[in-house]
Write a structure and sequence with these properties.
The protein is of the alpha+beta class. The protein has one helix spanning about 10-65; strands at about 90-95, 105, 110, 115-120, 125-135, 140, 145-150, 150-155. The chain has one domain (about 10-165). It is built from one helix and eight strands; from the N terminus they run αββββββββ.
Length: about 160
């Protein structure tokens, strides 16, 4: 009698392999998307940290020049290279949200006050926003003594001041 030689896999073996591949995909895909999201968050935080350093350097230069710490209205002006958006709209940009009303100090002089939205659109199309607020140097009174209060800034948004993504 002749013996049949089997070549290839049986149906049961193929089904077992398909089930194992399905389990691996169910575990790996969510982890991969989480790591991509964590990478995007880390890149955003690094960009913002670099921007804050540049803002501080520029304000310290202002302090050396005229003894007043003044922060730039548009935070991207402090950077060497202005960030941009690509043709898909992904990237960084700012939008002015100031009401146009400056404030007056104790001498009645106006000083700069602004609110800028820093916006970032990720590759997946999601957008995140940080508020950048500045107040320029101004005169203050304390117990009938007048002094100059330095300018200041603050950033509110994901990753800052306890806010999460």
């Amino acid at each position: 009698m002749s013996r049949l030689k089997s070549k290839g896999f049986t149906l049961v073996e193929l089904i077992i392999v398909m089930v194992l591949l399905g389990i691996l995909a169910a575990v790996a895909v969510p982890r991969m998307s989480q790591s991509i999201m964590a990478g995007e968050e880390a890149a955003e935080q690094k960009f913002l940290a670099n921007m804050i350093s540049a803002i501080e350097v520029q304000a310290n230069d202002q302090f050396v020049r005229n003894s007043r710490k003044q922060y730039t209205v548009d935070p991207f002006d402090a950077l060497d290279k202005y960030p941009s958006r690509d043709s898909n709209g992904e990237g960084w940009w700012t939008e002015n949200r100031s009401d146009g009303n400056d404030c007056c100090d104790s001498r009645g002089r106006e000083y700069q006050r602004s609110t800028i939205e820093i916006r970032h659109r990720r590759n997946d199309g999601s957008e995140y926003t940080w508020n950048y607020q500045t107040v320029g140097p101004r005169y203050r009174r304390n117990n009938n003594e007048e002094y100059i209060e330095q300018g200041e800034y603050s950033i509110f948004g994901p990753g800052f001041n306890g806010l999460t993504y």
